[in-house]
Amino acid sequence: MEARDAELKKELDATLHARRELGEEYESALVDSFLGKVEQRLDGTIDRRLRRHMAEQQMVVARGSRAPNNPVDSWGERFGFGVVSLILAIPLSAIGVVNADLPGLFVTWGGIVGVNAVHSMRGLSFGRGKDHGRKSEWDD
To answer: Residue 121: its pLDDT value, please?
Structure first.
């Protein structure tokens, strides 16, 4: 992971150097380019983790043992979802402001907060008991 961090640091240094040479009029294009590279790196990391997780689940099923009770609700997934939603918030906020000014910004962030709230509450059971829908240990 350190090699990737060094590569990303080189990209940031190159972007800052280009900004100094080209001036402020190219700043937004340079920032967009750098954020695109960060987003690609993040997408690649998430894709690798998801593929690894799916391969582990397939191995569990192939061996005939049980999958963990709640394998999807992990801290890494929630953190990744939060990071991706914040990265996507930048262009979505700009689109909302350009099209509808301040109310557009409020609607955009309301949607972002709503999606994150639903994602964080999807594992909760409301009034149904903790074991609702789960097989007992006697069932195979």
So the answer is: 81
Q: How far is the C-alpha of 31 from the C-alpha of 19, rounded, in Å?
A: 9
Residue identified by tokens 């397939």 is 58
pTM of this prediction?
0.39
CA 132 to chain centroid, in Å, comes to 29
The SS3 assignment for 125 reads coil
- 122's tokens: 């999807």
CA dihedral 41, 45, 50, 51 (to 10 degrees): 100
% residues pLDDT > 90 (the chain):
17
Q: Which residues contact 96 (CB under 8 A, 6 or more apart)?
A: 104, 105, 107, 108
Can you give the pLDDT at residue 128? 47
Cα-based torsion angle of the residue sequence 10, 16, 18, 23 in order, rounded to the nearest 10 degrees: 180
Structure tokens at 59: 């191995």
Distance CA 45, CA 50 (A): 9
Quick one: average pLDDT of 23-43?
86
| H or E stretch at 9 | helix 2-22
Q: What's the N-to-C CA distance of the chain in angstroms?
A: 41
